[in-house]
Design a protein that fits this description.
- The structure is a single chain.
- The protein is α/β, with parallel strands linked by helices.
- The chain has a domain of 103 residues: Formyl transferase, N-terminal domain (Rossmann fold, 3-Layer(aba) Sandwich).
- It is 37% helix and 22% strand.
- A seven-stranded mixed β-sheet has the order 3-2-1-4-5-6-7, covered by helices on one side.
- The longest helix is centred in the C-terminal third of the chain and has 24 residues.
- The protein starts with 7 loop residues before the first strand and ends with a helix.
- The relative contact order is 0.15.
- The model has no long low-confidence stretch (mean pLDDT 94).
Length: 195
């Protein structure tokens, strides 16, 4: 068994309430071989920041200016010895410098079955509204590697759920959240932490 100093180091990037961050924290909390080493957020007032501070996860707030010139941040993340990065509701496009520094070590969770309903501006309720407007019979989640374009990296895993007659964006979102919470920790465990 690994000692805590040998634990694999995971950074979570999030922009909002952080339901997936909370879920990942609960999943890995008692695992001596994995540590959530850092939360990176672009909104200092986001509820996920409060949660991270309350649970002792170090927080790194990034500004738009810093994101446009990310060399210092990339160096900082490399020095942290990260095993991988998970985008769990992080809305900014990841800079090429960060992708190069962590090749095939950055995963994104998307609340639809890519390649449909992805791309710039497709996040949160916008995705579920688009799925319902199109009359889809099913939706789901996609976990994929991050490349330099929104939601276009290689797909690693998908889980599906039905779209029910009478669904609203909110009711569909509830089922999608259940899939996210069930499967994202498992995918991270099986694919990102196998080094």
């Amino acid at each position: 068994m690994r000692t805590p100093t040998q634990a694999k180091q995971l950074a979570l990037f999030a922009s909002g309430t952080g339901s997936n961050v909370r879920n990942l924290y609960a999943y890995f909390r008692d695992r001596p071989d994995v540590q959530i080493a850092l939360l990176v957020c672009n909104r200092p007032d986001a509820p996920v920041v409060t949660f991270a501070r309350e649970t002792g996860i170090p927080v790194r707030i990034v500004s738009r200016e810093e994101w446009s010139r990310p060399d210092g941040l990339v160096e900082e993340l490399q020095q942290a010895g990260l095993t991988g990065i998970v985008l769990a509701g992080f809305l900014w496009l990841i800079p090429e410098a960060l992708i190069r520094a962590f090749p095939n070590r950055i995963l994104n969770l998307h609340p639809a079955l890519l390649p449909k309903y992805g791309g710039k501006g497709m996040y949160g309720m916008r995705v579920h509204e688009a799925v319902l407007e199109a009359g889809e019979k099913e939706s789901g989640i996609t976990v994929h590697y991050v490349n330099g374009r929104y939601d276009e990296g290689a797909i690693l895993f998908q889980a599906r759920c039905p779209v029910l007659s009478g669904d609203t964006p909110e009711s569909l979102a509830d089922r999608i959240h259940q899939l996210e919470h069930q499967w994202l920790p498992v995918v991270i465990d099986k694919l990102l932490l196998l080094t």
